[in-house]
């Protein structure tokens, strides 16, 4: 059975990438070096992808989310601009971290600037603030390439039990607002994103129809529940438990209601099929710290240092980190969840 992952239209993505390289020749040269060296430990190219965290503030307290000390400080537009300008190799950027991006006052300026730089731009929101100040229109009109809206329950009871602090009625109303507008102007891809977990796995077959009723054209089911680099297991994670027959039924329902369904599974890396993130991507927090990835987006767990020392970190500190991805005996303890749990 084939499980498609969420990804953009490849023709448009590659065309957009090419135009960006022609406008910024340094990006093209960096990509050539990346293509030649991409799985080396010692490299001399810059990252091609980046997660930039506009805020750590969040109006929800989701039960499956990483526990961390929330910083009240947001990334400023000038800080964002500096990083984007200095990272000459960037092709793709995700403007979102552990917080709700719409809480950052400079969020839309960041989207606009990244688009002007011909970067492929993604973001994720909990959808709770889309009705305020016409945020749903601003998000679509920014022409951000991918918008994921996190929705982890198909009814009020389950949604509000998982997305603590959320309001089901507000969420569903906001989804209809943004989808109704985007389906008319067709400027971006708005996707429903559900993390399958203990509290909602019984709604497995309900999600396609529920999302179609909210006027989504695409949805993703994620089974990637992480321990966020900690030793403790994520108590909300569920054992997989779904059969080929279950997925066949799910696909049938999705076809009936006219929604495209994709899947995001928990990584299962090995020395042969290793994590590629340290070879091409970094994560920068609101206050400029470089972290491994969005799965370990907590500097209390692992922090490579401040962005001011980027070249020392990326070209030197990351050498050992990259080696660990291809040798399980060297895999950092914080990454073991993606490598089967034990060395």
What's the structural blueprint in terms of helices and strands?
Elements: H1 10-23, H2 25-37, E1 49-52, H3 77-86, E2 92-95, H4 107-116, E3 120-125, H5 135-141, E4 146-150, H6 156-162, H7 168-185, E5 189-195, H8 207-213, E6 218-222, H9 244-257, E7 260-264, H10 277-280, E8 281-284, E9 289-291, E10 305-306, H11 310-326
Parallel strand pairs: 1-2, 1-8, 2-3, 3-4, 4-5, 5-6, 6-7
Antiparallel strand pairs: 8-9, 9-10
Helix pairs in contact: 1-2, 3-4
Provide structural commentary.
The chain has 343 residues and is an alpha/beta fold. It is built from 11 helices and 10 strands. The protein has a 10-stranded mixed β-sheet with strand order 7-6-5-4-3-2-1-8-9-10. Strand 1, helix 3 and strand 2 (92-95) form a beta-alpha-beta unit. The mean pLDDT is 92.
């Amino acid at each position: 059975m084939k499980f498609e992952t969420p990804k953009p239209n490849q023709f448009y993505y590659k065309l957009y990438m090419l135009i960006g390289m022609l406008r910024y020749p340094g990006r093209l040269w960096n990509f050539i070096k990346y293509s030649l060296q991409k799985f080396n430990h010692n490299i001399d190219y810059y990252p091609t992808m980046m997660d930039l965290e506009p805020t750590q503030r969040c109006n929800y307290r989701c039960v499956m989310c990483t526990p961390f000390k929330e910083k009240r400080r947001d990334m400023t537009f000038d800080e964002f601009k500096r990083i984007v300008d200095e990272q000459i190799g960037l092709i793709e950027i995700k403007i979102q971290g552990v917080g709700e991006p719409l809480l950052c006052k400079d969020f839309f300026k960041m989207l606009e600037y990244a688009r002007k730089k011909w970067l492929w731009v993604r973001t994720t929101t909990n959808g709770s603030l889309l009705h305020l100040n016409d945020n749903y229109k601003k998000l679509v009109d920014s022409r951000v390439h991918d918008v994921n809206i996190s929705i982890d329950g198909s009814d009020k009871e389950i949604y509000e039990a998982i997305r603590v602090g959320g309001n089901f009625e507000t969420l569903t109303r906001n989804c209809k607002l943004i989808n109704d507008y985007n389906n008319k102007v067709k400027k971006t891809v708005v996707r429903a994103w559900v993390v399958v977990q203990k509290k909602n796995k019984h709604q497995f077959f309900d999600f396609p129809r529920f999302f179609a009723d909210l006027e989504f054209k695409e949805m993703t089911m994620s089974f990637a529940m992480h321990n966020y680099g900690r030793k403790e297991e994520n108590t909300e994670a569920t054992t997989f438990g779904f059969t080929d027959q279950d997925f066949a039924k799910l696909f049938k329902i999705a076809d009936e209601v006219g929604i495209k369904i994709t899947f995001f599974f928990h990584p299962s890396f090995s020395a042969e099929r290793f994590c590629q993130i340290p070879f091409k991507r970094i994560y920068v927090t609101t206050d400029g710290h470089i972290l491994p990835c969005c799965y370990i987006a907590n500097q209390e767990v692992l922090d490579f240092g401040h962005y001011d020392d980027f070249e020392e970190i990326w070209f030197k500190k990351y050498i050992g980190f990259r080696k660990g991805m291809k040798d399980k005996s060297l895999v950092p303890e914080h990454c073991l969840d993606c490598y089967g749990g034990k060395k």
